[in-house]
Amino acid sequence: MLNRIKKLIFTAITIEIVGAFLLASFFYTVFFGLKETVAILQWLCFPLLIACAITYAFGWFICNRFSARYHFKKWQGVVIMFALLLVGIFGGMLTLSISANNDINEITDVFPVVLVFLAFGGLPTLILGLWLGNRLSKLNPS
User: Which sequence ranges are marked TM in the entry (predicted)?
Assistant: First the structure.
């Protein structure tokens, strides 16, 4: 039971990360060109890797907090996905703020980035959270 929960949460994380990467790359390429997209991805490579690793680690932590007899509700998938999104955003922002080539000097510089991620990532996260909640609720033991 716990392995199925972990597999579902990791699948949702993977779909979220791949979807966000493809969508962001597409729109950035449309508005700024391929050369600029490659440059920004090279600049953000390490923070993106750390954000993904932190998201998977937090997903693993969440998986291990549930017992095998836990009864999931559909709304909990949405909460899990938004928590994972926020943890990934703040992990990536922390990594970017520590790196030498950044423009993030104060805590107030983080809020616009979080708002952009929530504005563009909110709907896909909501849809994926509903999918996850639906799948987790079907795992409820009888």
Answer: 12-34, 40-63, 75-98, 110-132
Query: At 138, is the secondary structure helix, strand, or coil?
Result: coil
Overall domain count for the chain: 1
Structure tokens at 62: 């969440």
> Residue 126: how many CB atoms within 10 A of its CB?
14
Residues spanned by the domain of 52: 2-137
Note whether 81 and 132 are within 8 A (CB).
yes
Q: Enter the pTM of the model.
A: 0.84
Helix boundaries (H) for the chain: 2-32, 34-43, 45-65, 74-98, 110-137
Distance CA 99, CA 108 (A): 17
Structure tokens that stand for 48 in this block: 């993106």
User: Can you tell me the distance from the alpha carbon of 124 to that of 133, in angstroms, rounded to the nearest whole number?
Assistant: 14
Tell me if 142 is assigned to some domain.
no
For residue 90, is it within any domain?
Answer: yes
User: What are the CA-CA distances from residue 91 to residues 43, 86, 139 (Å)?
Assistant: 16, 8, 30
